[in-house]
Amino acid sequence: MDSLEQVHREIIECRKCPRLVAWREEVASVKRAAFRDWQYWGRPVPGFGDPDAKLLVLGLAPAAHGGNRTGRVFTGDRSGDWLYRALHRAGYSSQPTSHHRHDGLRLTGAYVTAAVRCAPPHNRPAPTERRNCLPYLERELRHLGDVRVVVSLGSFAYNAIMELAGVRPRPPFGHGVQARLPSGCTVLCSYHPSQQNTFTGRLTEEMFSAVFQRARELAGGEGASLAEA
Question: Cα dist. 164→11, 50, 168, 173, 181 in Å?
Fold first, then answer.
């Protein structure tokens, strides 16, 4: 019988994309000098959070020396620092920092996952690799059940959730844009908290926090779950 735990197990063992398998394992073997004492995860990274979540946060893919090192999505890199600070401010995270998968962090009402589960070269997964991962996202959502709001971090994640929901044509992606799915679930867009966006000021802490405060408002209202799409 399928379960969220079963989905996680299958994600961890997945080898569908040869390019991603080769890259994630190479990074885990060579390592970065600053993390030479770490035993890298070096496998696909499953989702993380509250099984009763009303908020789903959908990112791009694990970072080579972030999730691919720590084994938990958005953990151990600067994008994760931004994300968990924002979730903490919005009341979803027990702490504002995320260093490794055994650091005690707990999410309440939120679940974090990614469109692609393996670290891609140059942080650029291919659309075919996203399609290979979509069945995992579909199954996660089926077991989560109560998701009312999806925060998509970047256009790649936005396209993944819209493809899964069968939405065509799609409203153009933009920071703060809201899109209603046929199920009644709301997709709320945000720029990805990558250094390319945060170092340049394209995304500020205030902008990012506002997205999750808005998600909190939307998740508290009535509406259908994404699993009903």
Answer: 18, 21, 11, 16, 10
The answer for 176, left when phi > 0, alpha when psi is -120 to 50, beta otherwise, is left
CA distances from 11 to 16, 18, 35, 170 (A): 10, 15, 25, 28
Q: Mind listing the pLDDT tens digit for each residue in 167-192?
A: 999 999 999 999 999 888 999 999 99
10-60 pLDDT, tens per residue?
999 999 999 999 999 999 999 999 999 999 999 999 999 999 999 999 999
Look at the alpha carbons of 175, 101, 91, 115 in this order and tell me if their dihedral is positive or negative.
positive
Annotate 135-165 with three-state secondary structure: HHHHHHHHHHCCCCEEEEECHHHHHHHHHHH
Q: How far is C-alpha 56 from the geometric centre of its chain's CA atoms? A: 8
Contact yes or no for 210/204 (Cβ under 8 A): no
Closest by CA position to 167, among listed 149, 147, 187, 193: 187
Residue 220: the pLDDT is 86
CATH number of the domain bearing residue 42:
3.40.470.10
Full-model pTM: 0.94
Q: What is the Cα 41 distance to its own chain's centre? A: 17
Of 140, 146, 135, residue with least CA distance to 228: 146
Number of domains in the chain: 1
Give the domain extent around 84. 4-228
Closest CA to 118 of 196, 60, 36: 60
Could you give the angle at the alpha carbon of 41 between the alpha carbons of 93 and 106, nearest 5°? 15
